[in-house]
Amino acid sequence: MRLSNKSATLLVLAALIALTPIFFPSSFYYRVGSLIFINGLAVTGMVILIGYAGQISLGHAGFAGIGAYSCALMPVHWGIPVLLAAVLGAIISALLAFLVGRPILRLKGYYLGVATLGFGILVYMALTNEAWLTGGPDGTQVPDSGLRDAAKAIGINLKNSEFWYWFCGVVLMIGAWLALNLYVSPTGRALRALHGSEIAARTVGVDVARYKLQAFVISAVYASAAGSLVALQNQFVTPDIAGYMHSIEWVTMTVLGGAGSVLGAIFGAGILTLLPQVLTMFAEYEQLLLGLIMMLVMIFMRDGLLPSVLRLIRGKDE
Amino acid sequence: MSTLLSVDGLGITFGGLRAVHDVGFSLQPGEILSVIGPNGAGKTTLFNMISGIYHPGAGKVILDGQDVTAMRPDLLARRGMSRTFQNLQIFQNMTVLENAIAGYHLQETGSFMADLFSLPASRARARTAKDGAMELLARVGLDRAAETEAGNLSYGKLKRLEIARALALNPKVLLLDEPAAGCNAVETEEIDHMIAEVAKSGVGILLVEHDMKMVMRISNHIVVLDHGEKIAEGDPATVSQNPAVIAAYLRAEAGADAGAAHA
Amino acid sequence: MSELLQFLFSGLTVGAVYALVALGFTIIYNASDVVNFAQGEFVMLGGMMTVFAYAAGLPLPLAALIAIVATAGVGVALNKLAIEPARGAPVVSLIIITIGASIFLRGVAQVLFGKQIHRFPSFSGDTPFRIGGATILPQSLWVIAGGLTVFVALYLFFTKTLTGKAVLATSNNRLAAQLVGINTNWVMTLSFALSAAIGALAGVLITPITNTSYDVGIALALKGFAAAMLGGMGNPKGALVGGLLLGVLEALTAGYLSSQYKDAAAFVIILLVLFIMPQGLFGIKQTERV
C131: which strand partners? Predict the structure, then answer.
C-alpha cells in the first residue's frame, strides 16, 4: 500500500474517525477527538504549504484568529449568521493571505519564517489591543451556530461533545480529500516541482510566485476554517487562538508526522494534541517535554514520525 | 531562413569582475550551435543570461524577433525556450515520470479550483500530460524507471531525464549545458543521436559541451569564449584551425597542469 | 525636547540589549548558517541564574560571572547535542530544532525557578542622573556601555586574533577553512559559547531594570532577530546599529503613538526591511549560483 494513494489515505482516516469512539471511556474524549481533528485540518493546510510547496509559515495562527473572530464579531456587529460569518472569515483570510503573501513569499528560509511570525504576532496584537471591537485579552462570546439543533431536526440527536466530534471529523475528511486531490493534480505537481528545484521549475514554465501564493492562500483558508471550528464549538474565543505558539505547534505537528503526507501530518496533530492530555499530572513539565520532543524527532527522524515508523515496520523491502 | 535567437553584446559583471563581455551570435532553426572554451570562460554564465536566470548588465537577447532580455524563465518557457543544467536540477522529491510530466507544465496547467476538486477537466489535462511523458521516457530509454524516485537514478540517466523534461516543452530553442558530462561512450553517442534528431525537426540547439569530439561531430557553428569574451566563431573546421583558439586551450591546459602540480 | 531625550535614553538602553542579542545571532549565523531561535533564552538564563546565585549569598559580580559561564556551557551543549547532529538538515528542521530548544529551556527554567518575576539590585544604585531635563538610570549606562564594550571586543577578536580569523574564515567557506587546517567543529562550539555568554551578559545587565521571568526569552529573540535583519544578517556592525535603532524606534512608538503597539514596531520593521531592502542596512546582495 502506497501512502500517497488517495483512497487508501481517506479510508484509513475514515476508519480511525469512525472506530476510535468505541474505545472512549467517557464523553470527555470526544472533545479531545474534535480538538485533534481541528488541529488536523489546520495541519493539512500546512502540508500543502510546507510539504508540497516547501515554504514555511510561523504565522498561520493569525488566520485562525481571523476565522474565529469572524464567527464572534460579524453576528454581533452586523447581524450576519454565524455559519456565513465563518465563510466570510475564510474569504477575508484568503484575501489577506493574498495581499501579505505576494511580498512575503519572495523571501526564503529563515527570512520567510520570521516575516510570517511577525505577521501572526501583529494579528494577535490587534485582537488583544482593539478591545472595543474584540473584547480584548479576556475574549468574547460566539453565538450558537444552530448546527446541533439542525442535526436534531433531521433526527441526529447527539450530546454536544459528540456532535462536534463527528462534525469536525467530517470537515477534516473534506479537507484531507481536497489536499489529496491537489497532490496528484497539475497544481500539486507544480508546487512539488518548485519545492524540488525552484530554478528548474521556472525553466519548465512554472510561475513560481503565483503557485507559492496559491499554496499560501489555500493553507490560510484551512487555518481560518480551523479557527472558525474552535469558535463554533466553544462558543467563546480569546486572542490566544492567534498566538504564535499555535503557529509553531502546527508547523511542528506537520513536520513531526512527515510534512510530505496528509496522513502523517494528521498523525502528528494527534500526538501533539494528546500529549498535554496525557501529561496533565506533569503539567509543569509540559513545555520541557514538548521542546525535547521537537528536537529529538527533528534530529533522529528527519522524515517525520510516521514515515520513519513505517520504514521500521516494513524493514528490508524499502 | 529567419533567425530564431540572436544574442547581441551580452555582458555581466560579478562584484567588479567581468564574467562575460560583449558576446554576440545568432542561431537559425534546425542549427546546432556550440559554445566552447576553457573552464571559467563564462559559458554557463552566458546560458544563465540567455535563459533569464541572471539579468545581463549589457546587451540584448532576441527570440523570434522579440526582445526577451532579462525576461523571467517561466515566460521564456512560454515563448519556446527550454534548457538543461550543468549541475543537474532534477526534482528529487518526485518520480521519474512526474519529472517528465513537469515538463508538460504549460500544457497541463489550468484552473486551481478544478485541480482542488479533482474535476474531470483537471484529470483529463493530467492524463494527456502523462501520456506524453511516457512516450518521451520511452524515447530516452527511461520508461522502465518511470515509477522510480528520481533521486535513485544514475547520473547518466538523470542527464537523459533532464533532456526529456526539456523536450517536453516542445521548444523552439533548446539550451543544453554539458549534456554528455559524466556519461560513458555509449551514452554519449545516444545523446549525440538524440540532439541531431531534435535539430532535424527544426529546433535550434545551443550547446555547451566539453567533449570536443562530440562538438566537432555535430555542430553546424561554433562560438569560442575565453575569459568571458568571444575570441573566434565559425564552422568546426575553421575554428579548430584558429590559432587564438588553440592558444587559449593550451594556456588553460598549462594552467590546469600547474594547478595539478601545486595540489 | 526633554521628552524626546527621555525616549532616546530608554530606547538606547533597550536597544543595547537588542544589539547584544543580535550580535549573538550574528556570531552563530556566521559560523553555521543557523538562525538560533533559542538566543533569547540565553538572556533569560543569564538573568535568572544571577538572581539565584545572588540569593544564595554570592557577591553580585561573582554571581553574574557564574551565570555567564554556565550559560556559555548551555550554548555549547545546545551545539553538541542538537545542532551538530542535525548538520545538513533542511532549514525547516533547523527552525523547529532551535524553537524546540527555546521551549525546552523555558520549560526547564519554569521548573527550576518557578513562574514568578525575579530581580536583583542595580550595580550602582538607583539614583538617576539628570541630563538636559531627562533622566537616565546608572544601570542604563551599564547596559549601553556593556553593549559597546562587547562590540569593540568582538571587533578586536575577529580582526586581531588568529582564533577570530579562523571563525571568519569558517563563515566564509567552511570547506576551504577545513582544508587549511581549521577545526570547524571547534569554531562552531566556540561560536555557541561566545554567543550564549553575550546573551547571558545582556540578561545580567538588563534584569535590574526590566526584571526577569522564565518567559522573557522569545520576545527578546524576535527583537534581536529584527535588529540583526535591519542591520543586515551576519554583519556585526549591522547588529549593533540595528539593535540601537530598533530600541529607539520602539521607544518613540511607545512615546508618541501607542504603548500597546510598541512591540508591533519591531515586526513592522522586519516586514518593511524584508520588502524594501532584504539585505538590510549593511548587508551584501547575493547572487544565486546555478
Answer: C134
Domain membership of residue C129 as a residue range = 2-276
Q: Is C126 helix (H, G, I), strand (E, B) or coil?
A: coil
Tell me the helices (H) and strands (E) count for chain B, helix number first: 11, 10
From the CA of B19, how many Å to the nearest CA of chain A?
A: 21
In whole angstroms, what is the distance from residue B55 CA to residue B52 CA?
A: 6
pLDDT in tens, A143-199: 988 888 888 888 888 888 899 999 999 999 999 999 999 999 999 999 999 999 999
d(CA C57, CA B41): 70
**Which of A203, A208, A212 is the mutation pick for testing B, counting most B CBs within 10 A?**
A203
pLDDT of residue A2: 45
C107 vs A119: CB contact, 8 Å cut-off?
no
**Phi and psi at residue B6, to the nearest 5°:** -130, 140
Interhelix angle C217-231/C39-55, rounded to 10 degrees, is: 130
Nearest-angstrom CA–CA distance, A133 and C39: 35
Residue C285 is assigned to a structural domain of this protein: no
Q: Is residue C172 part of a domain?
A: yes
Show which subunits contact B, needing at least 3 CB pairs below 8 angstroms: A, C
pLDDT along chain B (263 residues), means of 10: 88 88 94 91 93 93 94 95 93 94 94 94 94 93 91 89 95 94 85 91 93 90 93 90 84 62 45
Whole-angstrom Cα distance, residue A206 to residue A190?
Answer: 7
For residue C238, tell me if it sits in a domain.
yes
Q: Are residues C106 and A118, on separate chains, in Cβ contact within 8 Å?
A: no
The predicted pLDDT at position B261 comes to 47
| Contact at CB, A287 and C86, closer than 8 angstroms | no
**Among partner residues A122, A284, A295, which is closest to C104 by beta-carbon distance?**
A295
Give all chains having 3 or more CB-to-CB distances under 8 Å with chain A.
B, C
Question: Closest-CA residue in chain A for B83?
Answer: A203
Residue A273 falls inside a structural domain: no
DSSP B55: P
* Predicted ipTM of the assembly: 0.89
* Partner residue opposite C104 with nearest CB, options A106, A259, A292: A292
**Matching residue, cell 467563546:** A236
Q: Please report the pLDDT score of residue C264 as a whole number.
A: 83
Q: Is residue A220 part of a domain?
A: yes
| Counted domains in chain C | 1
- Please say if the pLDDT value at position A264 is more than 80: yes
Domain ranges of chain B: 5-89+171-262, 91-152
Domain with A230, as residue range(s), is: 27-243
Residue of A190, A196, A218 with shortest CB distance to B93: A196
Residues of chain A with a CB closer than 8 angstroms to some CB in chain C: 50, 56, 58, 103-104, 106-107, 109-111, 113-115, 117-119, 121-122, 125, 129, 199, 244, 248, 251-252, 255, 259, 284-295, 298-300, 302
Q: Do B112 and A187 touch (CB under 8 A)?
A: yes
Q: A166 vs chain C: nearest CA distance in angstroms?
A: 32
| Arithmetic mean of pLDDT, C221-247 | 89
Look at residue A87 in the predicted model and tell me its pLDDT.
96
Q: In this complex, which of B72, B103, B168 lies closest to A202 when CB atoms are compared? A: B72
We report the CATH number of the domain holding residue C7 as 1.10.3470
A10 in a structural domain: no
Taking Cα atoms as reference points, which of A60, A59, A29 lies closest to residue A44? A60
Class of CATH domain B5-89+171-262: alpha beta
Q: Do A214 and B112 touch (CB under 8 A)?
A: yes
- For chain C, the 3-state helix, strand and coil shares in percent, each to the nearest 5, are 75, 5, 20
Per-residue pLDDT tens digits for C178-202: 888 888 888 889 999 999 999 999 9
Number of domains, chain A: 1
Residue A282: inside a domain: no
Find out whether A209 and A105 touch, Cβ atoms under 8 Å: yes
Identity of the residue in C86, C111, C263 whose CB atom sits nearest the CB atom of A299: C86
